[in-house]
Each structure stands twice: as structure tokens, then as C-alpha cells.
Design brief:
By secondary structure, this protein is an all-beta fold. The protein folds into three domains: 219 residues, 3 Solenoid (Pectate Lyase C-like), CATH 2.160.20; 95 residues, Sandwich (Immunoglobulin-like); 67 residues, no CATH class. It is built from one helix and 48 strands. The strands form seven sheets. It has a 31-stranded mixed sheet that branches. It has a four-stranded antiparallel sheet with strand order 32-31-35-37, with no helix packed on it. Strands 40-43-46 form a three-stranded parallel sheet, with no helix packed on it. A hairpin with a 7-residue loop joins strand 33 and strand 34. The protein starts with a helix and ends with a strand.
Length: 456
């Protein structure tokens, strides 16, 4: 309903900006007048023709108005040619596409609520984009029942393409990404895809900065992401986030040569093999990551601000350090559970970063440490206990655990013995401690001498 209202508002607003209307009932109309809305008055077939609807002006709108174009006999149905900028297509239904439904080369075009389908034997791509920027496919569907080599979307270069809110279906592959630019390209949001070939495929070039978000992807052949015969120096990284993958009996990530990567974040997957990484695929890798949240509370259940939170991986590497906010939370973290790199066989070499430990430190509270195994999104709660005020130490040489967060309130003469404050935490001195030989703070210990306290 929201999209329908926005579309209605947009079409009403056109009259205020002087858009002219031109009717279309066949392929004979050239879309070459700027600031013009071209609209279908009936469904029609293209007949044998190289390219049916050719756009070559700025600010052109093509409105399908509920009618369809049958593409049997046309090599290309809609072509954005030289002179095109800021093209918008609405409610377009294109069927029986012979080779290409939409051809975009160095143009800017957006398609909304449009449906493209083909049963041709071989398709280079129902949507074909080369050296373009800012393309949008939003709403509708792309469907192919091709029996030969076929792609729903072919991307030959450029930056900033969005495919979102669509239903994708193919008896072959989904996206063929060859030569994506340095920007984020493409970005695939909220799609439902079922393909009988790899969902993401790169045969000769790069798929760098490709993102898939909030999508449900299912394959019955190939891999979710496949780098087949890349000769580029750096094919780059694909990131799939907040999605569900179904590769039952198949493989999530396949790469034949070097420098390809796939990252899964908060993504569940069904598969037989996670990876098939050729032993010659130097620099290729795969990573599984999840979200981690942390909250700190006191003994009464109130949120605690300014708790120093440190998160470390299984190798004691610090992956986060910061203070909780007024709600007792830290910013949500994305942490790696494990990664797979090139190994002695195609299953690769696994490196696990879990278990993780999270530690909370706050003056006046005992230090809290929690360990967790990262296999899913994780919420960690630190229940901080207020200091009891007493210190645990022995006679003679004192060894005080700073993590106790204690207060020393009894005057003491150490008669030449030593004091050692050990471990992360804070000890407060509220009295007089004298006649010691050495005083050492180690392993992160903090000492506070309060007003009236003397350490000397």
C-alpha cells in the first residue's frame, strides 16, 4: 500500500513539472523526448526486431499501466542508449524475452514493480548492465526457465546497483558479476531466490563489494557463491548478512583460483560442504560471524553505566574495549566464530576464534568475567556485585587481588614486608599503611588512596 501511494503521488506530481504523455502500442515509438511519460495502451508482441523500445533522452518515464510486452523475436526489449539519464520504469511486464529484457550501458535507470520472464534456451542476462551506476530494480520479479547457459542479471561493471524486494527464479544461475567497480556493487536486499545454478557467479573478473542482506536464497545446483575461473589479481569479497541459505546437498562457497572471499554474518545455512577451496586458491577465505550484545547490571537489576567492557578471543586477542552507556549496553559487535582458508584439500583449514571471554570492571564492584561459545547471536549479561569492603590478603607479605574491588580501612604497620596488588581491578586505601619495603601494582591493578588514606 505504501509503495502504491508513493507511486500515485509521483505520477500526479509529473503534471506539475511539465511531463508530456505519449502512448505506446508497439515497437515503433522512439523514447527520445526528454521529460516525457510513455505509457502502454495495450499489450503487444515485438515481432522480429533487434531492439524494441529504445530510450535516448533525459527524465523519461515508461509506464506499463498493467499491460505486457511479448518479446519473442526481439533481441532486446528495452535499451537505455546514449543520451539517457534518470530513466524510470513502472509496472512493466515483459514476457518471452529472447536474449535481453533490459540493456543498460553507462546509463542511470530505475525499474519499480516490474516483472521480467523468459523461456529462451540461452540468455546472456534478462537484465544486462555494463559500466553503469546507480541502477535500481525494486519490486516485482525476474524469472527464467532457460535450458542453456543463463543468468537473471548480468553485471559487467560499474558501481551502486540495487536489487531489492524481488522474487527471483531460474533454472540456471542468478547473478553473473564480472568486473564490479570499487564501490558497493551490487547490493541485494530482501529478495527471495530459487535457482538451479549458483546464486552468485563470477567467471572471469571481480565481484568486489557485493552485499546480500535480509534474503532467502535456495539453490538446487552449483553454490551460493562461486568463483569459477577468475584471472583477476583480486576478485574481492562478498558479504551475506541477516539471511537464510539453503544449499541442501551442495556447497556454500566454491572458488577455483586466488583472492576470493565470502563472509556470512547472522546467516543460517543448510549445506553438505561449507566450502570447496582449491589448494591453489592462495588468498581465498570464508568466514562465519555473529552479533554479540552485552549488558551490565548491579545486584538490584539496575543498568550500570561506565562499566569497562573487554572482549577477548580464544587467543587472548582483544576484539573490543569500551564503556557501557546509560542503559548498561555496549554497541553491538560482529565477531568471528571461525574462518576457513586454503588447506591441503578443498575442505580448507579451519581456524576457531571461540570461546570468547567478556570482562566487566567498575570501581566499587567485583570484576565479572563470562565465557561463551559463539555459534549464534549472543546476548551476554554481566551481573556486577558490589564490593563487600573487605580485602583478602595474608600476614607478612601482602598479595591483594584487585579484582575483589575492596577497601582497606584498618591502619597497618607491615614491619618491612612487601605489598603486591595483582590483577585487573581497583583497591581503595582509606587508612594509614606504613613501614613496607616495596609496593607493586601489576597485571592491570589500580590503587586509589582516598582522602585520609596514607600509603607511605
Amino acid at each position: 500500500m505504501k509503495k502504491l501511494l508513493l507511486l500515485l503521488f509521483f505520477l500526479i506530481a509529473l503534471s506539475s513539472y511539465g511531463y508530456a504523455d505519449t502512448a505506446i502500442s508497439d515497437c515503433s515509438v522512439a523514447l527520445n523526448s526528454a521529460n516525457t511519460r510513455y505509457y502502454l495502451t495495450s499489450s503487444f508482441s515485438t515481432g522480429t526486431i533487434a531492439s524494441c523500445l529504445n530510450v535516448s533522452a533525459a527524465n523519461v518515464i515508461l509506464d506499463g499501466t498493467g499491460y505486457s510486452i511479448n518479446g519473442t523475436g526481439a533481441t532486446t526489449l528495452i535499451s537505455l542508449k546514449s543520451g539517457t539519464s534518470n530513466f524510470t520504469g513502472y509496472n512493466i511486464t515483459a514476457t518471452d524475452i529472447l536474449t535481453t529484457g533490459i540493456s543498460i550501458s553507462s546509463r542511470t535507470g530505475q525499474f519499480y514493480n516490474s516483472n521480467f520472464s523468459s523461456s529462451a534456451t540461452t540468455l546472456g542476462g534478462i537484465v544486462t548492465i555494463t559500466s553503469a551506476a546507480g541502477q535500481i530494480l525494486d519490486g516485482g520479479s525476474i524469472t527464467s526457465t532457460a535450458t542453456g547457459t543463463s543468468y537473471l542479471v548480468y553485471i559487467g561493471g560499474g558501481t551502486g546497483m540495487y536489487v531489492q524486494n524481488m522474487i527471483l527464479s531460474s533454472t540456471k544461475r542468478g547473478f553473473d558479476i564480472e568486473g564490479a567497480g570499487s564501490g558497493s556493487y551490487p547490493i541485494i536486499n530482501n529478495v527471495t531466490s530459487n535457482t538451479a545454478g549458483s546464486f552468485l557467479y563470477s567467471g572471469l573478473s571481480t565481484w568486489n563489494n557485493t552485499y546480500v542482506n535480509n534474503s532467502a536464497i535456495s539453490i538446487t545446483a552449483g553454490s551460493i557463491a562461486q568463483s569459477a575461473r577468475n584471472t583477476a589479481a583480486n576478485i574481492g569479497t562478498v558479504t551475506i548478512r541477516n539471511s537464510v541459505l539453503n544449499a541442501t546437498g551442495l556447497t556454500i562457497f566454491t572458488t577455483a583460483l586466488a583472492n576470493a572471499a565470502l563472509i556470512l554474518i547472522n546467516t543460517t545455512a543448510t549445506y553438505t560442504n561449507e566450502v570447496s577451496i582449491a589448494t591453489t586458491s592462495n588468498g581465498s577465505w570464508y568466514s562465519r560471524r555473529w552479533y554479540v550484545d552485552a549488558n551490565a547490571k548491579n545486584s538490584t537489576g539496575s543498568n550500570l553505566a561506565n562499566v569497562n567492557i573487554t572482549i577477548k578471543d580464544v587467543n587472548s586477542n582483544t576484539v573490543y574495549n569500551g564503556l557501557t552507556d546509560g542503559s548498561g549496553n555496549i554497541p553491538q559487535q560482529t565477531l568471528e566464530a571461525y574462518n576457513i582458508t586454503v588447506g591441503s584439500n578443498t575442505s580448507g583449514t579451519y581456524t576457531y576464534l571461540s570461546n570468547y571471554t567478556i570482562q566487566g570492571v567498575l570501581d566499587g564492584y567485583a570484576t565479572q568475567t563470562v565465557s561463551f561459545n559463539l555459534t549464534d547471536n549472543t546476548q551476554t549479561n554481566l551481573n556486577m556485585t558490589e564490593s563487600t569492603g573487605s580485602c583478602t590478603y595474608t600476614s607478612g607479605n601482602w598479595i591483594i587481588q584487585a579484582s575483589d574491588g575492596c577497601n582497606i580501612s584498618v591502619s597497618t604497620n607491615l614491619f618491612g614486608n612487601n605489598i603486591t596488588f595483582n590483577g585487573t581491578g581497583t583497591t581503595r586505601i582509606n587508612t594509614t599503611i606504613t613501614n613496607f619495603s616495596t609496593c607493586t601494582a601489576q597485571n592491570g591493578a589500580n590503587i586509589i588512596v582516598n582522602s585520609g588514606g596514607i600509603l607511605g
